[in-house]
Amino acid sequence: MLDRNSNMRQSDLKNALEAHNLKEIILNKHGCQGPETFRRNNTNIPIDGIWATPNITVEACGYFSYNSVFANTDHRCLWADISYVNAFGHNKPIIVKPITRRLQCKDPCIVTNYVK
User: Fold this and answer.
1) What is the DSSP track for 52-86?
2) How many Cβ atoms sit within 10 Å of the Cβ of residue 60?
3) Is residue 18, in this structure, part of any structural domain at all?
4) pLDDT tens across 69-85, in order?
5) Is residue 4 part of a domain?
6) Mean pLDDT of the chain
């Protein structure tokens, strides 16, 4: 847990995660100028982050404004867009949907046969 003076730029948590070869992907993508992520934090320093291994390539990422995703929260919602191939190592499987036959409701004879 981060203490009152901790943040994503410098903290024991940051050092521990980096020691395990993880990186904070939002600050890594946009630099260390992220906004505060806790409403009562007036230092303009993020205390929340998204951590990933170095092989994860982020397409886009950022911070939502307060209450734009979840109402009445003290923290901003963070987001990251990572490609399926980058996350899982292959393309999404293609799902082939079978062609369906539709009931022709305008023809009473067909409806009767269907009901039987």
Assistant:
1) E-TTPPEEEEEEPPTTSSSTT-SBPPEEEEE-HHH
2) 10
3) yes
4) 888 888 889 999 999 88
5) no
6) 83
Rounded CA-CA distance 67/13 in Å is: 26
Q: Write the single-letter amino acid at 95.
A: I
- Residue 90 is classified by DSSP as S
108 within a domain of the structure (yes/no)? yes
Q: Is the separation of the CB atoms in 97 and 103 below 8 Å?
A: no
pLDDT in tens, 4-37: 445 666 788 888 999 999 999 888 887 777 778 8
Amino acid at position 116, single letter: K
pLDDT-derived band at 59, boundaries 50, 70, 90: very high
Q: How far apart are CA 54 and CA 39, in angstroms?
A: 30
Q: How many residues does the chain have?
A: 116
The dihedral of CA 27, 37, 72, 52: what is its sign?
positive
**Structural domain for 57, as ranges:** 12-115
In a domain, 6, yes or no: no
Domain count, the chain: 1
